Model the fold of this input.
Amino acid sequence: MDKNRHLSYRRGAIHIKKNTDYKLGVHLFRGDRAIFEDIKLLKINTAQIFSGNPRSYRPNKEKLPTFPFSSIFIHAPYVVNIASSDEKVWNLSIKKVKEELKLAEEMEWEGVVIHAGSSKKMGKETAIKNFLKALEKIFETDGFKRAKLIMENSAGEGDGWGSTLEDLISVYEEFPDIYFCLDTCHLFAAGYNLKNERVCKETFYNFFEKIPQEKLVLIHINDSHFPLGSKRDQHAHIGKGAMGVSAFQNLLKLEEVRKIPLILETPKDSPMADLYNLHIIRKILENSD
Done:
């Protein structure tokens, strides 16, 4: 089947405009079925993966999958926390980020997504200090000409570090080589009401006012299980969470956003979950031109 024509869905066929009009994908978990089969089924042209065990610092020893496109992002393991005040965790995290960047460089993939992290009850100022000090060590490393280090905004849990645009701007001002990923669930949980069209526009335009557009290289498209300003990070299916479809309609009206790779990290609680969420986003994209 021509990948630009139709995608089977349990309620019928969905007409898809040219798949090259935008980059849309999901976080793919490596399992028994080949990733390439998922890509063919989902009709995606970008993806995010863990390179190995997401709860371990250990290097991956398994062969990485091949993809029919190069727009691949590695998400650093959950254990990585470069804002940590625990010296062992901090050092292991830096080492792991360097390993992931080297891997992304070798594979000619886009880069590595890291969370803002937390100081674990030592306060936001300590988290910022630890984070920036870690970036110094990471950026000292030679050999990362293509692979991007990508900071993801947080929902505001714990010490709240990384949850505001001001936090992200402060990192960019110190390290202009860094790139960014904005997670819609995290924005909403941090108090940015994307359901309001004016607020949605202002949020992104305020970001672009201080940080060049080319530095925003990824959007994580997720609804939020918890309400606005909850500072709690739990993703929901598109349109079935507290954000609702309107938030994504507002978001995808922005031409600047439609040019950025969009990757879903929504729950995979049924075999049809990714198809359902992709269907919703594709319909919004079709109506946003």
About this structure: The radius of gyration is 18 Å. The first strand starts at residue 6 and ends at 9.
